[in-house]
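Recap from last week: sequence in, structure out.
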Amino acid sequence: MDIALALGGGGVRGVAHIGVLRTLEEHQFNVKAIAGTSAGGLVGAVYAAGFSTEQIEKVVKELDQNRSFSRKPDDGPSLLGLGSLAAKLTDLLADKTFDELKIPFAATAVSLYSGKEIILNKGRVLDAVLATIAIPGVFPSQEIGGRVLIDGGVMDPVPVQVARWMRPDLPVVAVILHKMPTDHVQDEIEIPIPISAPASILETINKLRPVQAFQIFSRSIEVSSKHMTELAMQLYKPEVIIAPPVGHLGILQNVDIDELIQVGMRATEETLNQIEAEANWMKKMQRKVKRRINLEPCPDYWAEVEK
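Predicted structure tokens:
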């Protein structure tokens, strides 16, 4: 059964996407198109390039979470860099172009100066990934096609409409990463980046004004993204929503990779019947008829960018 995916952002919570993809594979769902934003763009690009979920999991586990966000000398203005993460992405994607991907894929970004949402589906995939994960002010912005681009989640946290634009005949399965566990109690906000140090030192660092300012900034991004996601789900109405309960995790904190993958798998398993119902032939025919009657062009605030 064929489906299209819209993979949302959420920083390191994007590891849960691996579990989603693995469960869909195990139950013989065929992913025919992927639209991804931020972390969803990163995981989606690597998966679309032909890497298995086992290979992606191995790569994630090999990353040093304390060095993933180190800066490089040529990084533009930003609080953090992409360090070993960018190096690993370069190893995986190299100069691969969108035309060379195994699965049709598009990432989204936002033009910093025009404010337009940009669909990235041409040129080098690596450039698109670095743009879609460029959290404004936190990671370096990327210049593609004469535009300065930042994280697509600023405008569109879960690119449902892009997935639907790519394959209007297929059900869109949206994966959102803001749901809170039912038993979670909000603790005091911790240092928003991975730092290995004794508790006494971490406590001292936590009291520094720049760190506290970064905590507030990180939290404000999360609040905004959560509400934008909820509005987008109501407005664009994906056929199925998968919502792993990972919203309690900071977007840049150290995480238990195995547990996050399992959370993604369990959340997907809960929606399997719904996905199957939406992917059956009758629903597919209904979508085709609706598309012919109500053919809508790609919205004019989207643009394709070529390297």
